[in-house]
Amino acid sequence: MGHHLLSLRGLTKAYPGVVANDDVSFDVAEGEIHALLGENGAGKSTLVKAIYGLVTPDAGEMEFAGRRFAPAEPSDARRAGVAMVFQHFSLFNALSVAENVALGMETPPRTRDLARRIRDVSEEYGLPLDPYRTVGTLSAGERQRVEIVRCLLQEPRLLIMDEPTSVLTPQEVEILFATLRQLREEGRSILYISHKLDEIRALCDTATILRLGRRVATCTPAERSSRELAEMMVGASFATPEPRGAAPGEIALEVAGLSLPAPGAFGTPLREVGFDLRKGEVLGIGGVAGNGQDELLAALSGERPAPRGTIWLSGRDISRLGPMARRDSGLLSGPEERLGHAAAPEMSLTENAVLTAARRERLVRGGFIDWDAAERFARRIVDRFDVRTPGTDTAARALSGGNLQKYVIGREILQRPEVLVVNQPTWGVDAAAAAAIRQALLDLAAKGTAILVISQDLDELMQISDRFAALNEGRLSPARPVAELTLERIGLMMGGAHDMEVAHAEA
Amino acid sequence: MDFGSINPVLLVASVMVSATPILLAAIGETVVERSGVLNLGVEGMMITGAVVGFAVAVNTGDPASGFAAAALASAVLSLTFGVLTQIFLSNQVATGLGLTLVGLGLSSLIGKPYEGMKSPTLPKLDLGPLSDLPVVGRMLFSHDIMVYLALGIVALVWMFLKFTRAGLILRAAGENHDAAHALGYHVVRVRLMAIFFGGACAGLGGAYLSLVRVPQWTEGMTAGAGWIALAIVVFASWRPWRVLVGAYLFGGVTVLQLNLQAAGADVPVALLSASPYLVTILVLVIISARGAHAAPGSLGRPFHASQ
C-alpha cells in the first residue's frame, strides 16, 4: 500500500437538531479496500456524500491525490476520479442500460460506441450486461452491475460503495467481491460502507468505525472478531437472541397451490406457493427483493384475496376473507414499509394502535373509540418494547426508523396472535433494536404462536428460524430445517447468481 | 340528409386547422410531464395566450407579433406556477387548477375592450408548386405557417427527447428525480425550463384560436381545449407522435361531426357533439393498451433536494 489517496481532516456537518459528522478524520490509501462501518444514523452516508460533492461540509478539509479537494458538485468529484455506487440505486427504470450509464458520465460517447464499451468493461470484470435492456426488467443484482459498470467506465481512482450487498444472493456477493479485488489489484481504492461484519472481515484491508457521527476507531478488520467490531459500532455489548428448542405443535397455517397474478407493471406473480406453519415454529422466507415478498405478505394478510381453498388457518379456509376478518380469527401481519403501510405517518401512535388493534383489544365501543383504552394499549407497547418517544400522541413520522419498527411489531405481538406474518422486521433498524425485535419474536413463538418471517437478511433468518424456504420469481422452494443448510445451498435456493450459470441444481 | 355537401378536400384542410391549437398545447404539456411536473393550468395558459395574442395583433396590426407576445405571456404565467411548485413546493394539482382560474379571470379582464373586434390574421403560406398540386395541394399545402410550425415542434420535441443529452436528462428528472439529483443534475432548473416551454406552446395554441381559427376574441373561447390537450397527453402515453395522432383525431372528429350536423345527419346532436371526446379517448386507449407505457415515475411528486 502506497500513499494516501484520500485524507479527511476534521470533517464536520450538522443538520438542524443533529450533528451527522463530528470532527471525522481518516485516510484511504491507494489500492486498498477501506471499510466505513457504523449503525444506521452513524453518519456514514453523510460522510460519503461530502466526498462525492452532494453535501458541503460545515468544517474540515479533504485532500485527494495530494491536492486540496472540495467538490461543490458530483461532477467535480467525478472529474477528480471519484465514483459512487448508491445504496438505493440511482437508476432510471424506464430507461435502457446504455442511457443510464450515459447519465452518469461527464461526456458520454455516441450510443453505439458506448454500448460496445459497456460490453467490453462488463465482460472484463465478469459482470455481463446487455446495454439495450430496459433497467426496470433487470434483477437487483443486474441493476447493481449497471451502477458499477457506470462507475468503471469513468476509470475512477476511488470507488465508493454504499451498502452494496444488501440486495444480492450469496453467489452474487462472491462475484462482486472478485470484481472489487480485481480493482484493488489495479491500484484503485475502494471505500466500502456496510454494517455486515463478516463481509468486511473477508474483504477489507482497513476499517474506520463511526458511532453517532464520530470516528471511534480505525483497525484491521481481519484481526478483530465480529463481536468486537459490533461492540465498537454500538458502543456497548448487546444480547444476541437465545436459541430455543421447543417442539413445534400442530399445523396453524397451511398454504397450498397459491397463485396470484402480478399486481402491477413491476410486480411479481405468485406461482403455486405452498407451505405448512406449525404452532411455536418460526419459518423464515428468504430471497432477493422483488421476488414476491410483498405479494406474499399481501395474500396472507388479506389485502389481496386469494383463490378459494388456498389458505387455511387452523383447518378453516380463510382465502376469501379480508384483513379485518383474518385479524379476528388470529392471523396478524406486519408489512415491510413502516411509513404508509404498517403505520399512517401523520397519525399519532395511539391512533395507529387503534388502526390494527381496534377489535382484538376492544378499543371501540358501540362505534366510538375508547381513547383511554387506546392510550393504555399504546403506552403498553411503548413500555414493553422500549420505544423511544416523547409520548403516545407523537406522530408516527416523528419516530426514528428503529423505534417505529419496534412499535409496529410490538403492536401486533401484544395482540396475542395465533399466526404472525412479518416482512423485513428489522430492516433499517440498528443492531440493538434488531436484537430486541428478534428476541420478542422468539419469545412469542415460545408461547405457541406460529411465526412467518420474510426477510432479505440471511443472518437474521439463520438466527431465528426453525425452517427456511426461499422465494425466487414468485415460487417458494420447499422448506428445510435451518440446521441442515449451508450458505451455498441457500444461495441456490434463492436462484443462484441470476443469469450467471445454468446450474440450478436442486432447490 | 345530404352527405354530398361535405367536401373531403375542405374537410381535411379544416381538420389541420382545428387540431393545431390542441396539438401545440399538448406537445408543450408532454415536455412538462416528461420532466415530472403535472401542470393542470394548460387551459388558463391557453386563454391568456389567446387574449394577449389578439390584443397585440390588433394594436400592432401584425399577427406574428401577436403570436410572439402570446408565447411570452403564457410562458411568464407558467413560470409563476413553476416558482410556486418547484421552489416553494406548493401542491402541483392545486396550483395548476389555480393557474387555470387566474388565466380565465385575467383574460376576461384584458379582453373586455376587444370584444367584437376583428384581428389581422395569418396569410396562407405559398409553397409554390406544392400548393398548386391538385387535391393534395388544397388539403395539405395551403395553410398558414403555424400549422407547419406545430408539426415541426412535434418533430423537434421527439428528436430532443430521443436523441439529445439534454432530452435524456429531462427524462431522467421525470423518471426518478432523487436519482437525477444524486448524479448531480439540477432537477429544479430542468423542470423550470420545461414549464417555460410548455407555457410558451400553450400560449401559441391559444393565440392560434383567437387569431386564425375563430378569429376574434370571446370570453372563455378556449372552451376546454386545454383540458382536452391534457387528456391527450395522458392517453398518448407521453409520446410526441401519439400526441399528434390524438390531436388530429380530435380535430378531425370535431370537424366531421360539425359537417354531419350541418348535413342534417339522423343522429342526436348531443351524441355528435360528444363524439370527438369519445372517439379520441377510445382510439388512444386502444393504442396504448399494447405494451405497458407507464407515466414518468416522478410525475406530480414534489422534489426537494434534502441532505
UniProtKB/TrEMBL annotation, chain A:
SUPFAM superfamilies: P-loop containing nucleoside triphosphate hydrolases (SSF52540). Its main location: membrane. It is a peripheral membrane protein. Residues 6-237, 253-498 form the ABC transporter domain. Its EC number is 3.6.3.17. It is an enzyme of class 3 (hydrolase). This is Galactose/methyl galactoside import ATP-binding protein MglA. It comes from Roseivivax jejudonensis.
Automatic annotation (TrEMBL), chain B:
GO terms for cellular component: plasma membrane. Keywords: Cell membrane, Membrane, Transmembrane, Transmembrane helix. InterPro entries: ABC_transp_permease. It is a multi-pass membrane protein. This is Branched-chain amino acid transport system / permease component. It comes from Roseivivax jejudonensis. The chain crosses the membrane at residues 6-25, 37-58, 64-84, 96-114, 140-161, 192-211, 217-236, 243-263, 269-289. It is found in: Cell membrane. It comes from the Bacteria. GO terms for molecular function: transmembrane transporter activity.
